[in-house]
Structure formats: structure tokens, C-alpha cells
Amino acid sequence: MMKKEKINRIVVKVGTSTLTHKTGKTNIARIAKLASVLSDLKNEGKEVVLVSSGAIGVGLSKLRLSERPSEISGLQAAAAVGQCELMFLYDKFFSEYGVVVSQLLLTVEELDNEESKGHLIDTLNQLLAYDCLPIVNENDSISVEELINGDNDCLSARVAQITNADLLIMLTDTDGLYDGNPAENASAMPIRRVKEINDEIRSIAGGAGKKGTGGFVTKIKAAEIAVSSGIPVVIMNGAKPTGIYKVLENKEIGTYFEVAEND
What we know:
By secondary structure, the chain is of the alpha/beta class. It is 44% helix and 15% strand. It starts with 8 loop residues before the first strand and ends in a 6-residue tail after the last strand.
């Protein structure tokens, strides 16, 4: 069980499906609610880092493109447009609660380089010391890793690692991990707690969704990265961001990935 008073630094990852409607257009109300919840957590004394996908989805909406481009250059262009709009929305809604946000666009290469990673750690820690809320995204206009592999999931786990987070919460479009595909099997049941990420858990992880590029395969990989560093993970439905309160109150919501007691 998590002890709320020991959860001080939280990394929250939000996916494209949470930030957009089924029409593909930006879900403004949900972004506003997410901002209010995270701002409230900061008021409570928590340190929060937001890892946000959605630049491409928001960019497609801004460009009035009905279909996701098949070529990488089209995705990168949409990300360049969408990142501006996404940060505008975050800045607008968080500023209503007096929260200052900052933007960090990363590539895998920067995280793999010890010198640049050290500078990143220093920057994140200083932003948190300044009481800012860092918003992190893969630099999709330069890097193609997230475009192809949905690696913002793993990015969130690595951010949790380098910030020594106490908890990683991943918001997605399902109620957590199921023992089958709920879209195909009506009797599929949610798995509320995972004590060990083994081959069975990996085998039931699903594929990518319609809007994002991640799916549960990358979420399980991300959970492995975090848990191996002693950071518990909750994967939950982002449709109601207030569910984050339930996580911190140890109520049953989503799927909770435990850290082994000897870790």
C-alpha cells in the first residue's frame, strides 16, 4: 500500500487519447480539469512533473487534417504546430490557478548521454525548486522514436527515474490492464494489482490505440523501468482526472504495479 504522506514527487503521463475527442479535436474541458487537479496537488505540497503526448493530435486538429499523415515529415510538421497550441492551452489553464509551467522537449539521445542528462536533471530540480510545473514531451519534430514506437510511455518512466519520483501515474483511454481485450471480450476483467511484471503480464498487453502510438506494450515496458527503480506505477483511465485523488487515497482504481519489498 502507498502512504500518501510519502508521495511527494509525482510524474503524471497523459496520452493523446485523453487529450482529444473521438473526432480528433482537442478535449479542452479535460485539459482544464487535469490542470485543476494537478494545480490542487501542488497546493497540497506535492511536486508534479507532467509528461504530455498530444502534440500531433492537437496539430492535426489545428491544421484541419482529417487523417493522420502516413509520412514521418507530415507527423513532424503536425507536432511542430500542435506543440505550440498544446503549451498555449496548458499555460492558459494552469495560470488560472497561479501555477507557472515550463516546457522541456527531449530526445532519447539526450537521455542516453550522461552530460546532457546531468544538465536535464539539474534543470528539472531547479524548476521544481522554483515551484514550477515542468511539462515534458519527446521532441517529435526532430526525433522519430515516439512517432514510431510510442516511447512517451517509456519517456515518462525515465523522467520518473531521473527526478527520483515517488509515483508514476499514466493516464490512458482504458480502466487499466485487463486479462483480455475488453473491446473483443465482454467478460475480460481488469487486473487491479500486479506484483510482478512477468511473461504472462507482457503477453496480455495489447497493441496501439487509434489515436496514440503507445498501447499497453509500451506501458508495460514503462512500468518495468519505473518499478525496477523502486517507483510504483498506476495506469488508469484519464477520462476523469479527479481519479488521481483516488490513487493517492489508496482506493481501487486502474492497475497498480507494486515495487518488490526488497527493492
